[in-house]
Amino acid sequence: MKKRKDPRFRVGETVVVTIYGTVGKITDIKKIEGEFLYEVNESEGLFKESALELLESYDGYIFEQEQIDIEYKFLFGDLVVVKGYDEDLFKIVGFRTEIWRYKDDAWEDVIYELMRVTDGEWLEADENEITLVADEGQAEAFIKKYGFVFPAKKGMKTKKLPSPMGQKPNWIDQLLDHYNDYKLLYELFNDPVYKSKMDHVLEQLKSHSSHES
Predict the structure, then answer these.
(1) For the chain, where are the E strands, in sequence order?
(2) Half-sphere exposure of 117 (CA within 13 A, CB side)
(3) φ, ψ of residue 72 in degrees (nearest 5)
């Protein structure tokens, strides 16, 4: 079958991602091995032409999306202290937003994933339990200048931050779980978005391994 010389869609056109039923605009077009792939709403993944349809010609169900603006107080690499662990330094290694919706109420919670600087122990904490010590750009210089700040006192028992979710898994184990989940989704749907997320998780694992070395 002869491939078309021109893409089916153009940048700026409004399309429906048919596998999700979501609406977006074409923000970029790439041609790889003779096939046109499309970026929608500046997302990391790319979609094939067969996965897209112009909004005006689409007659399927459209999933209504809610626009949520989340302001993150802390970012990757920031050095922080945590309530209940006042003698330890932690580094932000991840964060997620939990969205709660009920008939008469709605809110969003930001949960930060932390790694203790001294031994790599993993912890989760809410935004209001964290205080910034140095941002990502100053973190390494801060550690080099002051060492492992707030060293634990001899004989002092380690405090545990209360968590309704119980004991947390090892950070590497959690990344591997994410990788396996994305791999399964990729094998089921062959969606490049999941392949991109698999590659991102692998980069995190490599970065962590290099840090440990």
Answers:
(1) 14-17, 22-32, 35-40, 47-48, 52-54, 79-82, 85-101, 106-116, 122-126, 130-134
(2) 27
(3) -95, 125
d(CA 92, CA 125): 10
Q: What one-character DSSP code corresponds to residue 159?
A: P
Sign of CA dihedral 193, 195, 199, 201: positive
Calculate ∠ Cα 210-75-102, nearest 5°: 120
What is the tens place of the pLDDT at every residue in 82-141?
888 877 888 888 888 887 777 677 778 888 999 888 778 888 988 888 888 888 788 777
Which among 41, 42, 40, 43 is positioned nearest to 51, based on CA atoms?
40
The pair of structure tokens assigned to 178 is 């994410």
User: What does the pLDDT look like over 18-31, one tens digit per residue?
Assistant: 877 788 899 999 98
Phi and psi angles of residue 104, each rounded to the nearest 5 degrees, phi first: -115, 15
CB atoms under 10 Å from CB of 15, counted, come to: 24
Instruction: Region of 155 please: left (phi>0), alpha (psi -120 to 50) or beta.
Output: left
Cβ contact 50:84 at 8 Å = no
Please state whether 20 falls in left (phi above 0), alpha (psi between -120 and 50) or beta: alpha
- CA 22, 24, 30, 36 dihedral sign is positive
Amino acid 150 reads F
